[in-house]
Design a protein that fits this description.
Layout: H1 7-19, H2 21-29, E1 40-45, E2 50-55, E3 58-59, H3 61-73, E4 77-82, E5 91-94, H4 95-111, E6 119-123, H5 128-139, E7 143-146, H6 153-163, E8 167-171, E9 174-176, E10 179-181, H7 183-191, E11 199-203, E12 217-219, H8 220-225, E13 236-237, E14 241-247, E15 255-260, H9 261-276, E16 283-286, H10 293-305, E17 309-313, H11 324-331, E18 336-339, H12 341-349, H13 353-356, E19 365-368, H14 375-385, E20 392-394, E21 429-432, E22 438-439, E23 444-450, E24 460-461, H15 465-472, E25 480-488, E26 494-499, E27 503-506, E28 509-512, H16 513-521, E29 526-536, E30 540-549, H17 556-570, E31 579-582, H18 596-603, H19 620-627
Parallel strand pairs: 4-17, 6-7, 6-8, 7-14, 8-11, 11-12, 16-17, 16-18, 18-19, 19-20, 30-31
Antiparallel strand pairs: 1-2, 3-13, 4-5, 9-10, 14-15, 15-24, 21-22, 21-23, 23-25, 25-26, 27-28, 29-30
Bound molecules: 5'-O-(acetylsulfamoyl)adenosine.
Length: about 625
């Protein structure tokens, strides 16, 4: 049994998955099209580390995402596309259309010399062609490396060169709110320093004038004119590479996380269906960009392999106004809505009328991902978007894990605001203390590790297996180290407290920044906060809080006092912020994660060299923060 419909099912399935992981995952994997069944379900050695799932199995993931749906739901919508511009017509692409489009793009790649194993960089906006590009690579056994189209040419250079990409797929330009971004010229600039790239395929989106380098660059629509709309899938091995996706490390160059075909397919499909309890015909919307792992696993591969209707949105939540998400949700009668806490907090800041003017009754399930969600934002989301009636699945996972690891199961497992709650089937978490010992009881706090492999875990860092080992498998012997801190409460529910480098030790007490932030955010005047530690003569570390208010505070000292009391009440006096700086914004990366490194430096009084700030969404906030440092 692998399907979960009740809490008892969950307990039973979870128990089976831990007692006999191989039988469990073999049963899940039965539900896919394989050209050849696997010889072994799992081979692993966490010391090397080496992990192989469904070894000997042969498949093509796109046959599972497309071909197999043609008979059953060929005329059903696969992708709903909503433009950046609310006036532009939406697109509804059926499974059959998607199938032919992917075949055409796959043939275009072949015609341009791409072969099995070649790396292809995809630097494109949120348009259906981007999903086709990913699937087209997979169709012919090429390895895609999607680079978020908000990254600059410098980041693009590093990623193209690290992967040794042969081809770049891009567009003339992209839309983002009221701005047009010249994507092709960013590519041109980058390619001066990318010797491995032989071809650039350019799709039209904005009609922006671009330079086409003869012999290197070709227009996508011209290329497509001459290709067939059928392309037999290249049969690959389970452990062949599906994609590389770069994620920033705390130091050094970005890490190219490697995901392979069989395990990734099985896991993203199973977790998508299980966590959201997806029902045939429902409209599912994940607001992430395909440039992040969330877009890979839960816009493209998970939903399409499950035969779902997946909505792809090109725009931003704040344009033309702060009601855009809710407008789109109403327009397409979205049933499952999945977004990030950072988006929730920014939309919560806008007047409630932006929500109230739309009918959101179609929404049945809500989800979040990306960072710990504070309780206050959780409640706002639950009450105002979910009408108090929809479960909020707080999905904890990572680029490295490929899919959901710890998460509620919609309408089946219990919710606890700010908790990712319980491990999914096959996931065996361990909470470790400072000495590397596993804490075996409940009501404890420590570092989160995973002690058994799961099918979609990253297999290596591209070109640097040693770094993979050092980063993830050296902290705790024989376990995967997540880099996150967590608490396991009396009932065994997990709350992720943030990256462990975000743990503050105040007078010997470990405090997770996320928990303090959550408490601060409970104050009605506070919209968002970020907490870091700084050296403190007596306590070792003190608590420094950066706080954004809905309105500029009149009585700063009073408000500081109230915030301190709030934290004392919720967590305890030990966690009271020593310093509170009011700010208008926080230094965030483009995927919405706060760059605490910068905040830490400012709190330490070291504002000289803040390191690389080029990946920030809005580098200007840094100056304001420096100027107001306490
Ligand atoms: C999917 C994604 C991974 C890091 C991870 C955590 C944080 C993600 C949650 C979360 C608390 C969550 N991949 N994180 N989801 N923290 N609750 N539900 O975000 O590679 O970009 O980031 O994000 O710190 O280690 S990621």
């Amino acid at each position: 049994m692998t399907t979960i419909r009740t809490f008892e099912d969950y307990q039973q399935v979870y128990r089976n998955s831990v007692e006999d992981p191989e039988s469990f995952w073999a049963a899940v994997a039965e539900d896919f099209q394989w050209h050849r069944k696997w010889d072994t379900v799992l081979e692993w050695d966490f010391h090397k580390p080496e992990v192989k799932w469904f070894s000997g199995g042969q498949l093509n993931i796109t046959e599972n995402c497309l071909d197999r749906h043609l008979a059953t739901r060929g005329d059903q919508t696969a992708i709903i596309w909503e433009s950046n511009d609310p006036a532009e017509e939406s697109r509804y692409i059926t499974y059959r259309e998607a199938y032919h489009e992917v075949c055409r793009v796959a043939n275009m790649l072949k015609a341009n010399g791409v072969e099995k194993g070649d790396r292809v960089c995809i630097y494109m906006p949120m348009i259906p062609e981007t999903a086709y590009a990913m699937l087209a690579c997979a169709r012919i056994g090429a390895v895609h490396s999607v680079v978020f189209a908000g990254f600059s040419s410098g980041s693009l250079i590093d990623r193209i060169n690290d992967a040794g990409c042969k081809v770049v797929m891009t567009t003339d330009g992209s839309y983002r709110g009221d701005k047009v971004i010249q994507l092709k010229s960013i590519v041109d600039e980058a390619l001066e320093k990318c010797p491995t790239v032989e071809r650039v395929l350019v799709a039209r989106r904005t009609g922006t004038r671009v330079n086409m380098k003869p012999g290197r660059d070709a227009w996508w629509d011209d290329e497509l004119k001459t290709v067939s709309s059928e392309c037999p899938a290249t049969v690959v091995d389970s452990e062949d590479l599906l994609f590389i996706l770069y994620t920033s490390g705390s130091t050094g160059k970005p890490k190219g996380m490697v995901h392979t075909c069989g395990g990734y397919m099985v896991y993203t499909n199973y977790t998508f269906r299980t966590v959201f309890q997806y029902q045939e015909g429902q409209v599912y919307w994940c607001t992430a960009d395909v440039g992040w792992i969330t877009g890979h696993s839960y816009i493209v591969y998970g939903p399409l392999s499950a035969g779902a209707i997946t909505l792809m949105f090109e725009g931003v939540p704040s344009w033309p106004d702060m009601g855009r998400f809710w407008h789109v949700a109403e327009k397409h009668r979205v049933n499952i809505f999945y977004t990030a806490p950072t988006a929730i907090r920014s939309l919560e800041k806008a007047p409630l009328s932006y929500v109230k003017q739309y009918d959101l009754h179609s929404i049945k399930v809500l989800g979040t991902v990306g960072e710990p969600i504070n309780e206050e934002a959780w409640h706002w989301y639950h009450e105002h978007i979910g009408r108090g009636q929809c479960p909020v699945v707080d999905t904890w996972w990572q680029t490295e894990t490929g899919g959901f690891m710890i998460s509620p199961i919609a309408n089946i497992t219990k919710l606890k605001p700010a908790f990712a709650t319980l491990p999914l089937p096959g996931v065996q978490p361990a909470v470790m203390d400072e000495n590397g010992k596993e804490l075996m009881t409940n009501n404890i706090e420590g570092r989160l590790a995973i002690k058994f492999p799961w099918p979609s875990m990253a297999r290596t860092i591209y070109g640097d297996h040693q770094r993979f080992k050092d980063t993830y498998f050296s902290t705790f012997k024989g376990k995967y180290f997540t880099g996150d801190g967590c608490r396991r409460d009396k009932e065994g529910y997990y709350r992720i407290t943030g990256r462990v480098d975000d743990i503050i030790i105040v007078s010997g007490h470990n405090l997770g920044t996320a928990e303090i932030e959550s408490a601060i955010d409970e104050h009605s005047a506070v919209c968002e906060s970020a907490v870091v530690g700084y050296p403190h003569d007596i306590k070792g570390q003190g608590v420094y809080a950066y706080v954004i208010c809905y309105d500029k505070p009149h009585e700063e000292e009073n408000l500081r006092k109230e915030i301190r009391e709030m934290v004392a009440k919720i967590i305890g006096p030990i966690a009271k912020p020593d310093k509170i700086q009011f700010v208008s914004g926080l230094p965030k990366t483009r995927s919405g994660k706060i760059m605490r490194r910068i905040l830490r430096k400012v709190a330490e009084g070291d504002t000289g060299n803040l390191g690389d700030v080029t990946t920030l969404l809005d580098p200007a906030v840094v100056d304001e923060i420096k100027a107001g440092a306490l």
